[in-house]
Design a protein that fits this description.
Elements (H helix, E strand, L loop, with lengths): L1 H15 L2 H12 L7 H22 L16 E4 L9 H4 L5 E4 L1 H8 L3 E3 L5 E4 L4 H7 L15 H10 L5 E3 L11
Antiparallel strand pairs: 1-2, 3-4, 4-5
Helix pairs in contact: 2-3
Length: 180
């Protein structure tokens, strides 16, 4: 019975994160908000961000997809392709354009100090000093286990446009990945 509950709970979470579902919710909410001033546009953006965060909380089961941290107040809904660079609301609100991250992982990812391969392996910029890596706990064990094909275009964008260019794929024992 407990297993059935877990399976049904996961199925419900997946249903709530169907890519267009969040964008559709956003469009419905946006219809009732004014859009004439900058302050009002910020309210619209905040509504979208709240829906997006909720969808990522469901998709990643309330845990940082890198460290496993499960403290909702500390988790960040991080866009792979930044909000400002997205071409549409659908892209901004796509659950596959996001990771749920611990604050320090989010800061590293947003500023391009780290990225991830299409398979979820950690990539670390050579520009990130060794001492900083140690202080932040950056580890080759940091991987994202649940990378789906729909994440890949966003990850490719992040590596090409956000990730610091003086970087290499993190070398893992037995890994044959090429340099970025």
């Amino acid at each position: 019975m407990d297993q059935l509950y877990v399976v049904l709970q996961r199925a419900s979470a997946i249903a709530r994160t169907v890519p267009n579902r969040v964008a559709d919710q956003f469009r419905r909410a946006k219809k009732h908000l004014p859009q004439t001033t900058e302050a009002e546009r910020l309210v619209v953006q905040r509504v979208g961000q709240d829906l997006y965060r909720s969808a990522l909380m469901d998709y990643w089961q309330g845990r940082c997809c890198v460290t496993g941290l499960a403290v909702p107040g500390l988790l960040r809904a991080s866009h792979i392709k930044p909000w400002a660079k997205c071409q549409s609301d659908d892209e901004r609100l796509d659950v596959f354009n996001g990771f749920l991250l611990a604050p320090h992982v989010d800061a590293l990812f947003d500023d391009g100090w780290i990225s991830f391969s299409d398979q979820g392996s950690l990539l670390v910029s050579d520009a990130l000093p060794s001492a900083a890596r140690t202080q932040l706990g950056v580890s080759p064990e940091w991987t994202i286990q649940n990378v789906k094909p729909a994440h890949v275009p966003y990850l490719m964008f992040h590596r090409a446009n956000e990730f610091r260019k003086d970087s290499l794929f993190a070398r893992r024992e037995g890994s044959k990945e090429e340099t970025a």
